[in-house]
Amino acid sequence: MDSVNSLHRSEHNITRDQYRNPYETLSFFRIEPEMTVIELSPGRGWYTEILAKYMYDKGRYIVAPYNPKLGGYAKRLWNSYNELLKSNEVYSKVETIFLFDKLADDNSVDAVLTFRNVHNWVKDNDENAKKIFKQSFSALRSGGYFGIVEHRADNKISLDEMYNSGYMTEEFVIDLAKNVGFVLVDKSEINANYKDLKNYPKGVWTLPPSLRLKDKDKDKYLEIGESDRMTLLFQKP
Fold first, then answer.
1. Is residue 63 part of a domain?
2. Distance CA 95, CA 75 (A)
3. What is the pLDDT of residue 26?
4. Which residue ranges of the chain lie beneath pLDDT 50?
5. Of 19, 22, 48, 153, which sits 20 to 30 A from 193 (CA to CA)?
6. What is the pLDDT of residue 1?
7. Which residues contact 82 (CB under 8 A, 6 or more apart)?
8. From CA 77, how far away is CA 67, in angstroms rounded?
9. ω before 208 within 30° of 0 (cis)?
10. CA 69 centroid distance within chain
11. Contact 30, 233 (CB under 8 A)
């Protein structure tokens, strides 16, 4: 996949390939360049750098960030992401809709992807997560794929603990998907990190790249690396 090695990618993002494994992850999710793909909550565009180029010639790449009208963090994130979209011709075909709006026409999309976001959708309860999963199911054609990467908790923990720590249990995420109609096709250890102890003062954000404690025990957390992550592939029957 030439887009992983493309010169337009930022050096900072490239250094994270060792933890995020983009080629292996997108291959596991069965993404092909002629597909129509939606990425939910693309953040500051780590995967956009790769997918915009990969889908440029033959496919469609649609992103669903938070609506900046929500203000605060959503607005700041959109401003940062929008600057990326304006920075290079490779992003000129990226299509944008906003999270919680209708993602696409029913049964029209080949794949929906999201990376390290489900924990953000369970504040107070899991209604937002349920809505997003349902919308993803509706947008996908029969046989379409739903790929999820998420920080992985080892033990059964409460929803509040998942939200506050950033770590989700595989059981919760799998049940969430199955309850809207998805079938679990496969799971992978591509993004596993067995050094991750998952018990930190600032949750998953204690680890890189956030390093929420700044210089305190920085070397220890850099040695651990980024979080242990589940990589799950679902399919719409």
1. yes
2. 18
3. 98
4. none
5. 48
6. 73
7. none
8. 10
9. no
10. 22
11. yes
Residue 32 lies in a domain: yes
Could you tell me if residue 160 is inside a domain? yes
The residue among 91, 111, 103 whose CA lies nearest residue 31 is: 111
Give dist(CA 85, CA 61) in Å, integer.
12
Work out whether strand 183-188 and strand 229-235 pair parallel, antiparallel, or are unpaired: antiparallel
Specify the pLDDT at position 124. Answer: 85
Determine the Cα–Cα distance for residues 120 and 131; give it in Å rounded to an integer: 13
Q: 107-116 pLDDT, tens per residue? A: 999 999 999 9
Q: What CA dihedral angle connects 16, 19, 23 and 25, to 10 degrees?
A: -130
pLDDT in tens, 54-87: 999 999 999 999 999 999 999 999 999 999 999 9
Sign of CA dihedral 186, 66, 48, 123: negative
Report the CATH number that the domain containing residue 130 is assigned in CATH: 3.40.50.150
Separation of alpha carbons 9 and 98, rounded Å = 24
Q: How far apart are the first and last CA of the chain?
A: 28
Q: For residues 131 and 165, is the Cβ–Cβ distance under 8 A?
A: no
- Boundaries of domain holding 40: 2-196+228-235
Locus of tokens 């999963």? 133
The total number of structural domains that make up the chain: 1
Tell the residue number behind the tokens 């500051």, with chain if given.
44
Structure tokens at 101: 């709006």
Sorted by sequence, the CB contacts under 8 Å of residue 156 that are 6+ apart come out as 169, 171
Q: Looking at the domain assignment, is residue 207 inside a domain? A: no
